[in-house]
Design brief:
This protein has 972 residues and is an alpha+beta fold. Helices cover 20% and strands 19% of the residues. The chain starts with 17 loop residues before the first strand and ends in a 28-residue tail after the last strand. Residues 956-972 form the Post-SET domain.
Amino acid sequence: MDDECINHNCKSGPNRKLFVAPKDVCSYYAVKYGPNRKVCKPCLVKSYRYFDSVCRRFRNQECVLDDEHPGKRRTIIELSDSDDDDDAATEPSTEDPKLSTAVKRILKDTVGPLVAKQDELCDNYLIAKKAKLEKRNEIVNDLVRQAEDGISELYKMLYKHDGQRKFEFDEELSIMDEVCSQCELWNQDVAFITSKQLPGFPDDLPTRVKLIRPSLRQGDKVYGMKQSLLHPWAEATVKLAVSETDRYFHIVFDDGQETVLNYKHLAYINTSSKAQHPIGSRVIAKFQDTNIQLTDKFYAGIIAEPPKYLNNFRYLIFFDDGYTQYVYHKNIRLVCGQSRYVENDVHENVREFIRVYLKKFPERPMVKFSKKQIVRAELNNIWGSAKVKNIDASLVQLKFLDTKNGHTEWMYRGSNRLGPIFNQLSSSKQNKPARGLTDVNKLLNRPYIELENLTGNDKTINIADSDNTRNTQENSGVIKSIEIPANCPKPLPYTAHQCSNLCRISVQYDDSQAKDVNVLSFPLYIGFMRSIITDEKLKLKKVIYTTPCGRSIDNEGRMYEYLKVTGYDTYQITIDVFNFDCTVDPLSKFIVPKVFIRIPDISYEMEPRPISVVNSLNDSVPKHIKYIKDRKTTPGINLNIDSKFLCGCNCIDNCEDKEKCSCWQLTNEGPKNYPNYFKDHDDIGYSFKRLHKRVITGIYECNSSCKCDKTCLNRVVQEPLKTSLQVFLTENKGWGVRTLADIPKGSFVCTYLGVVRTNDDTENDLKNDCSNWGEFMAELDFIEAVEEAKDGYESYVVDPEEESEHDTSSSDYEDFSPSSSDDSSDDPNFEIRSKINKMFVSKMSLRNLQDTHTKIDGEHELSKLNTQQSDQSESKSLRRFVDKECEAYTLDSKVCGNVGRYFNHSCDPNIFIQNVFVDTHDLRFPWVAYFALSNISAGTELAWDYNYTVGCVKDKKIQCYCGARNCKGRLL
């Protein structure tokens, strides 16, 4: 290698002249230095030109990174038989130590400032590069948001036509009567165009007009119930009317058999009525056999869902045999009559299910699915795991993973054979009063129950262009910008120095200064300056803090280091009082006229910041409560807060190293059991005292047994209230809470305090007084939440082979075959006995086409899935092993509590709940803390998701007035 140029990409000829390569040239070409290294003249000149360019930029105080640099070279490992080169390269030093020290001192005095300037220039260069990339990222995100908004608008245009009630003629059109009269003269059909007609409306689906059941006459052709409600109906002819009052008819079937049937067991043989069938209509419909061919057999059922765009203009039918199916209008026949309460006409196996369904209509709980999700479902009386294969409107196709043959079945998404529905029904029987603090299924991207409204037009909410974060009618105040007093210290001109405690000599810190100002603006009162710099070239904004000593800081990491080396952290000036988000304004403050302030401070100075009560609607004030700063317990509840039972850390570095802090490790241990949810283990828990993502397994803060300082990074919820809050009266939601200053995302807001009670005590009180049902109660559901996340965890690990399976289209399965049971007789007291029949919850299902048992005569066997089944996989709750006598606990803030009791519900919340362990590690008693889900502007009401289960309490409904775009309309 001695006769070769060190540049492995050298293009000089073989007769080139070689020179000894210096160390800097070897470094340029990424070659290890040695005394025998050679370089050709062109390559030598090229390297020195680069060095000259760098030096020139260095002297001129220009960024050295803003230039062309040598490209990345491939790494070549050189093999040598000896170590002569290395030995020769190592020579004894003959330098004079005194001379070396003097040279270093001179270099520091002369070159040091240039190096410091270059360091600053390089930082700015990299920041600009980063900003450019962020700008491009924002452009891409904007395009994605525009696409999502376009899809949402398209969905709204399609969905707004849903619902039976919208298929109506416009009665104000005067041309209607004229055209109709001409139709009678011409004796021909005319298609009318209405303003509410769906796009792509099918030709065979009639427009929505009043349904008319014509009287039967002698000789009319009909369908009649030949055997029972679970057998196919057959064609017949009306022979005569036996009783006009009770509407009994003597009919003759086509095979010659004669019988007398009530009009409720007869159906019209054609669809000449030209009317859609409304919800609850008694009908017969065709089914689909195993060969996926329509037969001429009709089975009894009711209309459960109207035809609309989202279900491909089909009716959802609940058949008497317990199965569910989508059917087109042409394959449905209307029953000649039905009872006022149609559930009395159906088979007893599904009677209670139909009654409950129609009672709750147009609202119905449906499980929200996505393809390839895993859900617990019941098959043959056994609960197991099933994978979602396809979704067809209100139906879902499941593949049961625990069966040998991979049983596949279509199922109604509101069936209680689905785990989420079954659990909700179990909860509703208990009338659970308290709101849940976590929604684990949504967090883990699992199937969850969502309330669906079939009509949608019963809602009075019109928020197409509204913003749920601002309500000018309820704000009754203005947002102003705070002016920093002129006598406040200002940053000094920057001079090169090493930051230390001397940097805060000029700062006169007074803790009382922070009482009445926004916590984010407090640094501006003690010598810091916050600026927003705009890059004119990149059009990007960036927050820069200038410290009292003149240093510029542009991110949380550097600010934290600055606070640490200067000793600010010992004065309670923590990192969370600084914010580097341009959209957050530390000087923004919401101000309400004093005339509206009813109570100056509802905490009566128990909180470090006053919490005023404002009412701009009337003269009322909130009911008096005992304001508390710590939770209370009722007699009999053992809340052990002895520090001897706490695990503490030995950190002396403000718990910066999460690997060494035992409290951090307690927080990190839980998520390790859920790698599919907690994918980034470095981003779990607090980040510079802010929480950006909920940790369902709980956060363990440092406590009284820890050796770390009170300002450590793992002490957040236990700190005094920093947020400026105000209680105010809303128009429809009672008392609420709003923020008087901007709150950055992830910031701690406050805690939820009350009296710890058992659920049994809470339920007993509710039975005696239901006026304020569950209004100030929250479940301490930490154990249940974690157990729910654990439940079936192994089943959520999907086999890779199953991931690659081809999903068949659900639109091919439209009809199926019902089944048979004992005959139901005509009984005059039928309706009376039906009204007093006992509770029977039926399981609605869709028959698996591969398992349809069809006999030659068309008779179908009764499905075993129509009977009430128990959950055989039920296991004992972990709570029972912790406390056998007490199943769960509730925080009740009705009599005593803090400001957290006044937060309202929102379907689109801006704060969220986090379970935190501070004074005890007992899993039954976590602290309940609120954190900001996003940046929140001053004057905005703070609201969280109560997570009520709609329909969980019998005969109890609570309307939702949150005004969010995705409002469900009901809380309960």
